[in-house]
From TrEMBL:
NCBIfam families xrefs: ispD (TIGR00453), PRK00155.2-3 (NF001186)
EC number(s) from the headed UniProt entry: 2.7.7.60
Pfam families: IspD
Lineage, highest ranks first: Bacteria, Pseudomonadati, Bacteroidota, Sphingobacteriia, Sphingobacteriales
UniProt pathway annotation: Isoprenoid biosynthesis; isopentenyl diphosphate biosynthesis via DXP pathway; isopentenyl diphosphate from 1-deoxy-D-xylulose 5-phosphate: step 2/6
Protein name, as recorded: 2-C-methyl-D-erythritol 4-phosphate cytidylyltransferase
Segments traversing the membrane: none
Site (Transition state stabilizer): 15, 22
Annotated source species: Mucilaginibacter pocheonensis
């Protein structure tokens, strides 16, 4: 079995409001994206890495790699209009159908080797594996303007990596784009497949807002990735 990781970094990071997209911001002196790629490379699975980046930032990234002596091999692919289109561009570069493909947000640099390895192993067994954590807060849902409490043990917050048999992911991504496709699980579920959840970690945060940079640095300093 061959293993791939599509690292999606094709976004502009509008909510971060930084001068460069958040995937390039520094955590303790190293760009976010380098932590993310390192985490996959250091896992026992050692997947081939496909990095999806806005075409306008390819030169910028290559310069960053030179500046930081970053030499983990990866294939560079142009990003798309939405995350869905970026994943599709990455998928187009993986002809091998007898493989497992993990899709991971570039801006989740605190993912662990354990999460990554669990994701590939469960996808091998079940066809798909979607990383998620149980809600630690009480949860309410608005129904007709009235909030109703939900059983929080039944509410999961979805993270990445999300890993799939390549043939399944490819078929699912042939569907027309739908605005409700916020992740890969929603695309594969729409294709008619039951989603299998695997345990993530509350520290596997997605860097979205300015304060997330300080939180990520704090977490990195508290606990090196394992
Ligand atoms: N056209 C896009 C949009 C998003 N992503 C990637 O999908 C991941 C999760 O998306 P999000 O956190 O929303 O990133 P942005 O779209 O960059 O942020 P924002 O919504 O604030 O603009 C990120 O790694 C982002 O780079 C992508 O590859 N291509
Ligand atoms: C894929 C994801 O990170 C899972 O939590 C999330 O859906 C991305 O959402 P965003 O709106 O692109 O931040």
């Amino acid at each position: 079995m061959k293993y791939y990781a599509i690292i999606v970094a094709g976004g502009s990071g509008a909510r971060m409001q930084s001068a460069v997209p958040k995937q390039f911001l520094l955590l303790n002196g190293l760009p976010v994206l380098m932590y993310t790629i390192q985490a996959f490379r250091q896992s026992s699975v050692m997947p081939d890495i496909v990095l999806v980046l806005p075409a306008s930032y390819h030169n910028y990234w290559q310069q960053l790699c030179t500046d930081h002596g970053f030499n983990i091999p990866h294939l560079l692919v142009a990003g798309g209009e939405t995350r869905f289109h970026s994943v599709k561009n990455g998928l187009d570069q993986i002809p091998d159908n007898n493989s497992l493909i993990a899709v991971h947000d570039a801006v989740r640099p605190l993912t662990s080797q354990h999460i990554i390895e669990t994701s590939y192993h469960h996808a091998e067994k079940h066809g798909n594996a979607v990383t998620a954590v149980k809600s630690r807060d009480s949860v309410r849902q608005l129904i007709n303007h009235t909030s109703v409490s939900l059983l929080r043990d039944q509410v999961y917050l979805v993270q990445t990596p999300q890993t799939f048999k390549a043939s399944l992911l490819r078929k699912a991504y042939e569907q027309p784009y739908n605005a409700k496709f916020t992740d890969d699980a929603s695309v594969v579920e729409q294709y008619g497949i039951e989603i299998h959840l695997t345990e993530g970690d509350h520290q596997n945060i997605k860097i979205t807002f300015p304060e997330d940079i300080a939180i990520a640095e704090l977490l990195l300093n508290l606990k090196p990735l394992a």
